[in-house]
C-alpha cells in the first residue's frame, strides 16, 4: 500500500518521468530483496546499519559509485516520504553516505566527424527508415534534446516555418529550441515520405516506426549506435553522446553558457558547466601540439 502511495506521489506531485519512476521502482525493489535475503525483514523495519550493509555489498560487487549514489538517493526519498506519512519513526537512510565518485568528462564526438556523416549521400538511404534514422541523428545533434524528449515530440510541437521546436523536458518544463535550415528541410521531406509510406495510419508523434507505431528507446539506441559506429571507435555511442556533442560544439564555438543551459533544459548552471572542462582539455591538447615549449 505504502509503495503505491509513494509511486503516485512521484508521478503526480513530483511529476517525474516514466523513466525516473522505473528507476525508483527498480532501486527500492533491489533493496527490498536484499533485506529479505540478508536480514529477513521488510522495508518499514530497515535501519541505518542495514542500508549501510547494502551499500557495502554493492561496492564489493563492483557497482559503480554513481549507481550506488543514485540508488541511495532513491532510498532517502522513499524513507523521507514514509516518515512524513508516519509509517516509520525516522529516515534510516539520511545519514548513510554515498561512496565518492570521480568526475568524468562527458563523452562526445567532434563536429568534424558528425557533420560529414550527416552530409554524406551514401550513408543514409532514401527509404522511410533511412530518412527517419537521419532525422533522429540530426535532431539529437542539432538540438541537444534528451532521448525521452525526442520520443515524445508531437507533430504539433515542431514548426519548420518558424524554425522552432517545443520540447517537454524534465518535471514537465517546456522550452523552445531553434531549428537550423537543413534540419527543417529534412523534417519536411520526412513528413512527405511518411504520408506516402504510412498513409493509412494517423499518429500524433513525429518519430515513428515503419509500421506506424510510436518509436521506443531501444530503437533510438540502435540508430545512434549504428551510425556513430561508422565515425567513432569509442565505447559509448548512445543518444546522450549526441546531446553532449551538441553542447560541446556550441561551447567551442563561443556560445554563452547560460544560453546553452536554457537549450539543454538544465535546472542549474552547475550541470552545464561540466562542458567547460571539455573545452579546457581541448585547449590543452592544442597547446601541447602547437607550442614549441609545451
End-to-end gap: 64 Å
Query: What is the CATH topology descriptor of the largest domain?
Result: hpI Integrase, Chain A
* Beta-strand residue percentage: under 5%
Taken in chain order, the helices and strands follow as HHHHHHHEEEHHHHH
Report the major sheet. Answer: 3 strands, antiparallel
Tally of domains:
2
C-alpha Rg, in Å? Answer: 23 Å
DSSP strand tally: 3
Superfamily at the CATH H level of the largest domain? Intergrase catalytic core
Q: What is this entry, summarized?
A:
This protein is mainly alpha-helical and 294 residues long.
Write the layout of secondary structure elements.
Blueprint: H1 2-13, H2 18-39, H3 48-60, H4 65-84, H5 111-119, H6 128-143, H7 147-151, E1 158-159, E2 164-168, E3 174-178, H8 181-197, H9 217-231, H10 239-252, H11 257-264, H12 269-290
Antiparallel strand pairs: 1-2, 2-3
Helix pairs in contact: 2-4, 6-8, 6-10, 10-12, 11-12
Describe the 3D structure:
It is globular and about 60 Å long. It is built from twelve helices and three strands, in the order αααααααβββααααα. It has a three-stranded antiparallel beta sheet with strand order 1-2-3, with no helix packed on it. It has helices spanning about 1-15, 20-40, 50-60, 65-85, 110-120, 130-145, 145-150, 180-195, 215-230, 240-250, 255-265, 270-290, and strands at about 160, 165-170, 175-180. It has two domains: about 1-85, DNA polymerase, domain 1 (Orthogonal Bundle); about 110-290, hpI Integrase, Chain A, CATH 1.10.443. The model has no long low-confidence stretch (mean pLDDT about 90).
